[in-house]
Write a structure and sequence with these properties.
- The chain has 677 residues and is mainly α.
- It folds into three domains: 255 residues, no CATH class; 227 residues, no CATH class; 138 residues, no CATH class.
- It contains 32 helices and two strands.
- Strands 1-2 form a two-stranded antiparallel sheet.
- Helix 20 runs parallel beside helix 27.
- The longest helix is centred in the last third of the chain and has 33 residues.
């Protein structure tokens, strides 16, 4: 190792063909920067100069430093070069609008007579605009990344200095194209909306994560050339794993932080205030109750028929799970469809719940006059039941036991009938049902919620039928007073309030996903979530349960004896060291993990093997990326809200660790439960 290191450290011999253009670019930029600074006197100009010179320095370090010599001995050195050439140097060079200083630094005659005809040539402008469009930039970036890492082409470049230089040029210039629509350095107005940079960055992270994970988890050496010449104690396989980690962790940070910054800028209140508001001369006419209200009873009846069929097959059918409705419908189809309905619309399963349908029938014969005990008016009972449910799923193998699944469904029917048949309101839904609690927390990221249309109408209302009820419909049995309701927590989408409202002022309206986690107002029937330890624990059980549940299906399987103490320790640490809203900030990441995990099983059941292999993992990583991005944004906002900025770095590290653990799980062989293949 010492001989190789000494040889590499002695390889600082500068290549004039590389050093001269970089030095010339630095001098031209400094000359133009001085001219622009004298005219504009912008105090931010030193930052502009520092960014450009730092970009040139990073480019020089990647190509001319000993790192280039190590490239022939270590794949990890190549990945470091890759990182610098594609993800560090290009954004540094494009920051702070470098085009104007570069043009001002050149001789006026050359700019006017030499570059002028090209800069004003319409055909060239169209080509450049096409190349810097987000779709083209991503396509070229992805093709360059994947092409040069194919073993055959990578080893060709490793053995040819000309191809090696071409490889570096492709990395750098496709990096420039990729970061151009993200940074939008100008000059002039950007041809694409600012939000297009977010999916571009997420797509770039998806490619980076997939390639990195392939290096880490492939289990074999991809480039035999590194096995022939080894310089040090580290094996080629270990070097390849290190290379994947270098590309994975810093690369994801480089992609996700700008995406988060752009999202914050787009969603910031200052930006929203600048938008012109439309003045409505006449008030919007109040419409009749939603047509979907009439669909609830038919939907509940249909779900009841399906539940009865599942129980019948579970009790009396073939006990081989893949051939039994109780082994397939609840654990593969229903779980996936309910979670994705929550992500696409809202709490549709509770809307069509067959358990409350049977309860409503039973209430025609049962008194339902008792009050739910005050000591149980919290989430602690449902938390215990949810933990027991998650434990039983694995420990008792419910997914592989149709009869046990049928018993569980029957227990749900009996519990709903027994509790709500004797107690007022919807005590079963609000305080007992573990499935309902899962949907309540997951619906915090739903894009729609049941809420009022106009506050003025509620202010003039004197009957409050939405919560009291009337002769046409009962009011909200979960005690959610609509004018004070904020978010979907505890809302079953039963739409009783919609039917009861005499002004038709309640509807299922659009809401930004997770927007209710960005504030902490007093919520009807819930109070402030920052003071609800039980709600925070419920959210953390669902979040960590997503990762524990998924990890039980991979090989090597991590035992419950190891996972449960870790999960419990993390929950206790979060509750003790951070505001409770930080716990709720992890909800998007936990929901994305559940969605990605359930997508794997659902896609494996309905898609051909070739399509499933090509799409499932990419979709899973994309879901996790979106969940991490949204969680980081919520955590950042909560850190400002509670003056807890010192906690944000530690909290973001926890979110990143959960994300990394989730990606690791998806790249392991996962058990295809409930299926024949």
């Amino acid at each position: 190792m010492n001989a190789v290191a000494n040889a590499a450290l002695a390889s600082w011999a500068l290549d004039f063909r590389v050093a001269a253009p970089l030095l010339l670019a630095a001098l031209v930029y400094m000359r133009g920067w001085l001219r622009v600074r004298r005219q504009l006197r912008d105090p931010r100009d030193p930052g502009r100069l520092a960014c450009f010179l730092a970009g040139l320095a990073v480019l020089f370090l990647a190509i001319e430093s000993p790192l280039d010599s190590f490239d022939h001995f270590f794949l990890s050195a190549h990945m470091t070069q890759h990182l610098l050439l594609m993800m560090v140097a290009p954004p540094l060079l494009l920051l702070r609008h470098p085009i104007v200083p570069l043009l001002r630094g050149l001789p006026k005659t050359f700019v006017k007579e030499g570059l002028g005809p090209f800069l004003t040539w319409p055909a060239l402008r169209r080509v450049l605009r096409a190349l810097t469009s987000p779709p083209a930039a991503f396509a070229l970036f992805a093709v360059s990344t994947i092409f040069w890492h194919l073993p055959a082409f990578y080893e060709l470049a490793l053995n040819s200095s000309a191809l090696h230089g071409l490889q570096h040029a492709c990395f750098f210039w496709t990096g420039i194209l990729f970061w151009w629509p993200v940074i939008q350095p100008g000059p002039g107005k950007a041809p694409y909306p600012r939000w297009t940079a977010i999916p571009l960055l997420l797509a770039g992270d998806l490619v980076n994560t997939a390639l990195s994970a392939f290096f880490v988890f492939s289990g074999r050496v991809l480039y035999p050339a590194y096995e022939i010449v080894r310089a040090g104690r580290m094996s080629a396989q270990e070097d390849q794993t290190l290379a994947g980690l270098i590309m994975w962790v810093p690369g994801s940070i480089i992609y996700l932080i700008p995406a988060l910054a752009i999202a914050v800028r787009l969603l910031s209140s200052d930006r929203l205030v600048q938008r012109p508001t439309r003045v409505r001369v006449q008030p919007r006419p109040i419409r009749s109750p939603l047509p979907i209200v009439k669909l609830r009873r038919p939907a509940q009846a249909l779900m009841l028929v399906i539940a009865l069929a599942v129980m019948a097959d579970g009790f009396f059918g073939n006990q081989f799970a893949p051939l039994n409705l109780a082994g397939v419908l609840p654990w593969i189809y229903w779980r996936f469809l309910s979670v994705f309905a929550l992500l696409a619309i809202g709490n549709l399963f509770c809307f069509a719940c067959p358990f409350t349908f049977v309860r409503d029938i039973g209430r025609k014969f049962l008194p339902a006059r008792l009050r739910w005990p005050r000591a149980l008016r919290s989430k602690w009972l449902s938390i215990a039941l949810l933990v027991a449910y998650l434990w039983a799923y694995e420990a008792l193998g419910l997914w592989d036991n149709p009869a046990a699944t049928a018993c569980l469904i029957a227990a749900y029917f009996l519990s709903a009938l027994a509790i709500d048949g004797f107690f007022r309101g919807a005590a079963f839904c609000k305080y007992v049902c573990p499935i309902g609690q899962f949907h309540f927390v997951t619906s915090l990221v739903s894009p729609r919620e049941v809420r009022i249309k106009r506050a003025q109408v509620c202010q003039s209302c004197s009957t409050y039928d939405c919560i009291r009820g009337n002769v046409h419909s009962r009011g909200c049995e979960l005690n959610l007073f609509q004018p004070k309701k904020f978010g979907n927590l505890d809302c079953t989408f039963c739409l009783d309030c919609v039917r009861a409202c005499p002004h038709s002022n309640i509807a299922i309206l659009p809401s930004p996903p997770a927007a209710t986690l960005l504030a902490d107002p007093y919520r009807s029937s819930l109070g402030r979530l920052s003071k609800r330890t039980d709600v925070a624990v419920l959210a953390l059980v669902i979040i960590f349960g997503a990762f524990v549940n998924a990890s039980q299906m991979v090989s090597p399987v991590i035992s419950w004896a190891l996972e449960l103490p870790i999960a419990l320790a993390a929950i206790v640490l979060l509750l003790c060291c951070a505001p409770k809203s930080f716990s709720l900030g992890l909800v998007p990441l936990g929901v994305s993990m559940w969605a990605a995990h359930l997508l794997f099983h659902f896609a494996g059941a309905v898609l051909p093997a070739s399509v499933f292999t090509a799409l499932a993992r990419s979709a899973q990583i994309l879901l996790l990326d979106a969940g991490l991005l949204l969680s980081l944004y919520i955590g950042w906002r909560n850190a400002q809200l509670y003056s807890a900025r010192k906690l944000f770095p530690a909290w973001s590290i926890l979110a990143a660790a959960l994300y990394t653990f989730g990606v690791w799980i998806f790249f392991q062989p996962m058990q295809m439960r409930g299926m024949l293949h």
